[in-house]
């Protein structure tokens, strides 16, 4: 398997119809209605204002020495990026692909620690079911670089707001600034401290029924329940197997009604504590219990605790919200945080997001971010036009046309 972190990934040509991370150039498809609406509104606003400004300027100031080029924004300096993305997993690379294809200067910092790197295969990803998570990252690297996105393998250790955007500092001492920031650092899974559990993580020990339930069909399933969520996971697994045991010691006292419901559905409960994972030939064969006996188990669904890798967001002081997983970064529907110009996507803001959900969140944030940049650039051009004709008789006529009214009226 080719490593996604090789020194250089060669560019490959892209055909004209692209939009999907890891599926670029493979098929044409209609865009989502929300995306079409967002793009249409943005395009309509820009076209309407520029057309009306052009008409006014041409009719009232035909003798003006201003040329069309004088109304254009100066290029962003090489020292500043349009967007810096912290994190190079499905969410971060999806955002990078959208923005790079929008001809934005995009810089991705990737610490090379995707949450699902322990798994040999990922599931529930359309056209990539059973694909290696690291191969998905390798594909993403190649696709982002093919459209001039820049990816650096480094960990961001400091994040600051500046007068013109944001500055980040990496563990290698590099500094970079950008107009906008997307944080896609994800989270890590904290497993119960049971000997042998971590060694099987991503293979015989998994967490997600949607990701690994189908592959567990007909097998002896053990569920390490640490809370009521673990009990719910056991219920989710009943379509896959009739041999399910919930190990309850980590969850504390289980209400009688919950016990009765589990038993009614054919799920066994085991109150003895699990002390070790037993393997043979690299595969799980059972779980050792505190009285020395062994429960015969083929696969373990553990209740891992997600730990947010959100230090960049904490440094910026974003607002947080309480979730079943604890305190998490608060975002709107597009992933925008309480700090202007900052988005948090994927597992950074949604700890239970699967790969396609994380990728979609990255794309959604990228669309919103680019729309903001377009609006900002139109506002700058508008201000320049008003400045050019400030004090003239036409200023009064131009001002209403160049207002921030979204309708342009």
Automatic annotation (TrEMBL):
<feature type="domain" description="FAD/NAD(P)-binding">
    <location>
        <begin position="82"/>
        <end position="360"/>
    </location>
</feature>
<protein>
    <submittedName>
        <fullName>NAD(P)/FAD-dependent oxidoreductase</fullName>
    </submittedName>
</protein>
<dbReference type="GO" id="GO:0004791">
    <property type="term" value="F:thioredoxin-disulfide reductase (NADPH) activity"/>
</dbReference>
<keyword id="KW-0560">Oxidoreductase</keyword>
<keyword id="KW-0285">Flavoprotein</keyword>
<dbReference type="InterPro" id="IPR023753">
    <property type="entry name" value="FAD/NAD-binding_dom"/>
</dbReference>
<dbReference type="Pfam" id="PF07992">
    <property type="entry name" value="Pyr_redox_2"/>
</dbReference>
<dbReference type="InterPro" id="IPR050097">
    <property type="entry name" value="Ferredoxin-NADP_redctase_2"/>
</dbReference>
<dbReference type="InterPro" id="IPR036188">
    <property type="entry name" value="FAD/NAD-bd_sf"/>
</dbReference>
